[in-house]
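Entry 14. Ran structure prediction on the chain below.
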Amino acid sequence: MTTKTSELLAVTAPRTAAVVRGIADDQLGLPTPCADYTVRDLLNHLFDVVVNFQALARREEVDWTRKADRLVGDWRARFATEAARLTEAWSDPAALEGISPGMGLPQETLGWMALIDLTVHGWDLARTTGQELTVDPAVVAAGHEFMDRMGDTGQKMGAFGPPVATDAHPDTVEALLGRTGRDPAWAR
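Output, structure tokens:
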């Protein structure tokens, strides 16, 4: 069984996992387009995303304040496994029904939050480490749809920085990045 959310995650999760696999240990201290995060910080945040949003799909409460360094052992393979589990968790249509008891948002919105995090932070990591992340056009369209609905709220809550003006066509990944507060031309 699949849902639109799980189908989009199934495209995005392996691409982001490939970027994670391509990160060298000596790159963990580098700054990222996500200004408050080094590569290590962003990887740990992205681990939290893929694990916690699995629980949110099951309507379990999560503790976003719990911070641990997840970059131990074979963390690259573990990230790929957890990203695949995230996709599976959102493949059940019941995961998209109703309101999240812990976050008070529609469950469908939570699934798309996970999608946006994997996409945008995957780009952050790729850009910082000299890799490419190809974002599927359907994911870009979903990202713009999400930002249409939740962008202002996300910015007020600190999830997104102030929008960055771009010359990009409005339906591109570059425009989506600008909407989330990133400069698509960012370079370290």
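Residues 4-139 form a domain with the Four Helix Bundle (Hemerythrin (Met), subunit A) fold (CATH 1.20.120.450). Will compare against last week's run tomorrow.
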